[in-house]
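Researcher: Structure prediction, please.
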Amino acid sequence: MTNPYEPQADPGMIQPGGQQPQPPQYGAPQYGPPATVPPHGADPAAPYGRDLQGQPYSDKTKLVAGLLGILLGSFGVGRFYLGYTRIGVAQIAVTWLTCGIGGLWPLIDGVMMLTGKVPDTQGRPLRDN
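Model: Predicted structure follows.
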């Protein structure tokens, strides 16, 4: 054990005998190379990027789906655009069988598409642009 009151040699100074002291080894963990984020569109599994949860974005956009749902919803066009064929046919049937009163369903559905609440048929969230 060394005496704490004895002056200690500076680790950067050359010790008697002419040898350079080695820096202390603390056993710090060795990390690999830094992770790189591929540029936009470089990930083949997610050509339009990923959301905050890591899920890839759809090739469909919120704006197009929402406007189609609002403007042409009575013809089921918004749902056909997203790939929901059966729901699109159901929207046509409900709208025409109720003499237009069922047209509220596609209108509300279009607003939900604009807010991003409706995914595409593969469960991917719609893109913003």
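Model: The CA atoms of residues 9 and 15 lie 8 Å apart.
Researcher: Thanks, that helps.
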